[in-house]
Specification:
With about 800 residues, the chain is mainly beta. The protein is about 10% helix and about 50% strand. It has a 22-stranded antiparallel barrel. Strands 10-13-14-11-12 form a 5-stranded mixed beta sheet. A hairpin with a 6-residue loop joins strand 30 and strand 31.
């Protein structure tokens, strides 16, 4: 540890020296405009667009609402400030050479009902080129200046897709190019991002369990409390361990309103159009308001689903199923403005989803007939996520010294999920994954000016995370022992604007990880402990530097290109290594980490009402995670890997009320079996389909006016058939051939009055009889399950 502390100290010293150099170069040249934009409720107007009309000068307010424009020619200007949800304001100012002009403006709320306002904001957004994001760098920035590939799902898109299905895993599967299609069950096994596992977060709190994957992080919160979803694609280390494929950050609502008390109520029913016992119901209640310097939001959701049936009306297998579940979500967020520069905010979210089914599994015949549910008594306890607690305490100081801002987050997550009963364990049993995380994030942001053509800011700080994970059987037997990880990671990220149009970003993060593993015994495979191995635990230490850099040229809206390089660091799924240990000490096991290098180039383009974006990428790793089955266990092949693909997304506004669009994503991956540096030799292999999803195409047509919204969605999942069966005609897990399928969904909403809205969604509109990609690539009789037949979701909402 002394060596780690020395490395950390050196890294922090380098950051301080670099920052001192930036400040020493700072100088004031030409006319300068500096100011702060706030909202009428006293909050920072982060992301507000500041423009000097009839000129080339334009910028965006930072996360503390401040902005600056340098080297502005002497003149009289009209400054215009706009932000979605607020009235655009204008003011005349005078700029004098070599002098500073101070401008502090306040935006007024538009005054519409909160739900109507949110819908209008999203409808007007049109292009995503200037969408505001925070996850890529932990500070406010716009997509048009971010040198990486990002997908943002805004509040209206979340709401509209929720009309079809309130399952968050379905929403992200449709909206995010490069993310695998939904599994139609409680887990997200096989739902990878660009062929690698993503790190899922709620307000920056990790939901994934990389020390022993539970595969249930995607469905960890109800979409009704999510303001937007930011997906950073490609390996990234910005939030730490486990982001090989990128990160998915669910950013929660804060109840934007000027009222002391407002709210939204919704009640609905769900079910299959074909078959009995499918009816379910869903209730959602939200209260929010603002009292002087205090604002709050409290929300609760309860949903009970009926039996899920396929297109033929048969009961879908209850194993890891979403039918006959009870789901609860309790959410609260409260904030208080200590001063005009300081704010404190507390968020808490509780999520649980448990199945109580009257059906048991009847195996299908792989490739012939589906596995279904038949009436019977399910063994063991109810399966599902017992609880997922998340809490986040955030403190923001917009000006802790000079123009430097501070953000500090103290958070925790407590998670327990139980899996179905399995005969895999001797005497059968149910496993459960428990994970508790506690963390502290501290970061500062300091703007600097080297010259009128060279400005930027530095974000720097550290992450401290303690992650305790284990996997035991419900009866008390230990499958994965207690794994206790502590990670201290200092980092620095610099973003610069050169000549106003070249946006350069570079960052460095130092991972310092120590893991302690308890002594344990592997599970017995026979009576009286037969087959059990005593394994001595101990400490594992990892340290590494990971780096990222990128460049985007943002002068022209019609062609906004970028290139980037980024790395991620992940401790390989240790739980999988420990469960099938054949040695008597962890020091003898393969526990090396994974470092992924991601290379990418792409562009975004806006031509009037037409928007287009595209990206090509490839990622490499010297030690991969291709899973093969050995003696009933899934064991990782640690071989060099290469994953590559491309994505295209476009939309066009035909008329004011009608927009059409869609996206296409292709992913492929190979493993270098003989480690000769090539990936197409006679012994080299394709990566399995639990990692590499088939190609995916989505399309949509959205019509909306002041009262009626009608949206039609289409998804086509392509073929992937690159593996051969064994001598008996069976496929290994992950190698089953995937046959393409098409799905159509429709979402409608009608505003009866300003406060009352009726919603109707139909999933699988044409009652297509299909098998999910997961059920196809598994290659087993038990997992060969169909997807949902036609399902409806009818709801009535009231805002006040």
């Amino acid at each position: 540890m002394n060596n780690l502390n020395l490395r950390t100290s050196k890294f922090l010293l380098i950051i301080c020296l670099l920052f001192s150099v930036f400040l020493s170069f700072a100088q004031q040249t030409g006319g300068k405009i500096k100011g702060e934009i706030t909202t009428s409720n006293g909050k920072s107007a982060s992301g507000a667009i500041i423009t000097l009309k009839n000129s080339k000068y334009k910028t965006t307010a930072t996360n503390d609402g401040s902005f600056r424009l340098n080297n502005v020619a002497e003149n009289i200007y009209t400054i215009q400030v706009s932000l979605a949800g607020y009235e655009t304001i204008e003011q005349q100012i005078t700029v004098v050479n070599n002098e500073k002009t101070i401008v502090n403006l306040q935006l007024k709320f538009s005054g519409k009902t909160d739900e109507a306002q949110n819908n209008e904001i999203s409808e007007k957004s049109g292009s995503q080129l200037d969408e505001i994001i925070v996850s890529a760098s932990r500070k406010v920035e716009t997509l048009s200046k971010t040198p990486s590939s990002v997908t943002v799902i805004n509040a209206k898109d979340i709401e509209d897709l929720s009309i079809v299905s309130p399952n968050i895993a379905n929403i992200v599967a449709f909206a995010v190019p490069g993310l695998g299609s939904a599994t139609n069950n409680t887990g997200n096994y096989g739902q990878t991002l660009r062929g690698r596992n993503p790190l899922v977060l709620i307000d920056g709190i990790p939901q994934s369990t990389p020390l022993k994957s539970a595969g249930r992080e995607m469905r960890s919160i109800d979409p009704s409390v999510i303001e937007r979803i930011e997906v950073i694609k490609g390996a990234t280390a910005i939030y730490g361990n486990g982001a090989d494929g990128g990160l998915i950050n669910y950013i929660t609502k804060s109840g934007k309103t000027q009222k002391r008390f407002a709210g939204y109520s919704e009640a609905g029913t769900t079910g299959n159009i074909k078959g009995d016992s499918t009816a379910g119901y869903r209730f959602n209640q939200q209260f929010y308001g603002k009292i002087n310097k205090f604002n709050y939001m409290v929300a609760g959701t309860y949903e009970k689903t009926g039996v899920f049936r396929d297109g033929e009306g048969q009961v879908i297998s209850p194993e890891y199923g979403l039918g006959e579940t009870k789901t609860y979500n309790i959410f609260t967020k409260a904030g208080y403005n200590l001063t005009d520069k300081q704010r404190i905010e507390l968020m808490y979210n509780y999520f649980s989803s448990n199945q109580d089914s009257d059906f048991i599994l009847k195996n299908g015949v792989y490739g012939v007939s589906p596995a279904i549910g038949v009436l019977g008594n399910r063994p063991g306890v109810d399966e599902g996520t017992r609880y997922n607690h998340n809490a986040n305490l955030q403190y923001v100081n917009k000006q802790i010294f000079r123009s430097t801002s501070l953000t500090a987050n103290l958070y925790f997550q407590d998670f327990l999920t139980i899996f179905s009963n399995s005969a895999f364990f001797y005497g059968s049993g149910q496993s459960q994954t428990a994970s508790a995380k506690k963390g502290l994030r501290v970061y500062l942001n300091s703007p600097f000016t080297v010259s009128s053509n060279f400005t930027g800011d530095v974000t720097y700080g550290f992450d401290l995370l303690n992650d305790k994970t284990n996997q035991k059987l419900v009866d008390g037997r230990v499958w994965v022992p207690n794994i206790n990880m502590v990670n201290l990671a200092p980092y620095a990220q610099i973003s610069t604007q050169i000549f106003g149009d070249f946006n350069v970003k570079a960052g460095l993060r130092a991972e310092n990880i120590k893991i302690n593993i308890d002594d344990y015994n592997t599970l017995a495979t026979g009576a009286n402990g037969a087959g059990s191995i005593a394994v001595k635990g101990g400490d594992l230490t990892y340290d590494a530097f990971v780096f990222n850099t990128g460049l985007r040229y943002s002068k022209f809206k019609f062609f906004n290109p970028f290139v980037s390089f980024s790395q991620s660091f992940s401790v390989f799924d240790l739980g999988r290594v420990l469960t099938n240990a054949k040695e008597d000490a962890i020091s003898k096991l393969q526990t090396k980490p994974i470092i992924v290098n991601n290379y990418e180039g792409g562009f975004s383009s806006q031509l009037g009402k037409f928007n287009l974006s595209a990206a090509y990428y490839f990622s490499t790793s010297k030690l991969g995670t291709n899973l093969v089955q050995v003696d009933g266990y899934l064991v990782a092949e640690r071989l060099p890997e290469r994953v590559w693909g491309y994505e295209v997304q476009a939309d066009y506004q035909i008329i004011k009320q009608l927009t059409v669009g869609g996206n296409y994503a292709y992913v492929q991956g190979r493993g270098d079996k003989d480690s000769d540096g090539h990936f197409y030799g006679p012994t080299d292999i394709y990566l399995k389909s639990n990692r590499i999803p088939p190609s995916k195409v989505t399309g949509y047509a959205k019509y909306g006016d002041k009262r009626l919204n009608v949206e039609l969605y289409w998804m086509m999942v392509g073929d992937r058939d690159v593996f051969q069966p064994n001598a008996k005609g069976a496929y290994a897990i992950g190698e089953g051939p995937i046959k393409s399928f098409n799905l159509w969904n429709v979402a409608t909403a009608y505003r009866v009055t300003e406060q009352i809205r009726v919603k109707l969604g139909i999933e699988n509109l044409f009652n297509t009889d299909y098998y999910t990609t997961t059920s196809q690539f598994y290659g087993t009789n038990a997992n060969y399950t169909r997807g949902n037949g036609s399902r409806f979701n009818l709801a009535l909402g009231y805002s006040f």
